[in-house]
Amino acid sequence: MPITAPAAAQTVHATIELGELLRQYQLGLVLIAGTADDAGERPVQWVHGSDLADPSPFLTPRTVLLTTGAQFPTPPTQAQADDYVDRLIAAGATALGVAAGVVWERTPATLVAACDRRGFPLIRVPYDTPFIAIVQTAAQLLEAQARARDVWALDSQRAVSTAALQEDGLAAAIREAASRLGRGVALTDRSGRIIEAAPASARTRLSAEWIRSEARELVERGIRSGRSRDRDGVGVQLQTLGRAQRLMGVLLVEGSGVPDTAERTLIGLVAALATVQLEHRIGVDAAETALRGSVVRLLLAGRGELAAEISTGILPRLPRGQIAVILTDSFERSSVPAGTPIDDLRSIAAGRAGVLTAPRGGGAIVICEAAELSPVLRVVREHGIAAGVSERGAMADLDRLIEQADQALERARVAGDGQTVEYRPSMQAGVLRLLDADPEARRAAEGLLAPVRQHDAKHGDSIGASLRVWLAHHGQTSPAAAALGVHRHTLRARIQTAESLLQRSLDDPDTRAELWAALRVVGED
Question: What is the CATH number assigned to the segment(s) 7-142?
Answer without folding.
Answer: 3.40.1390.20
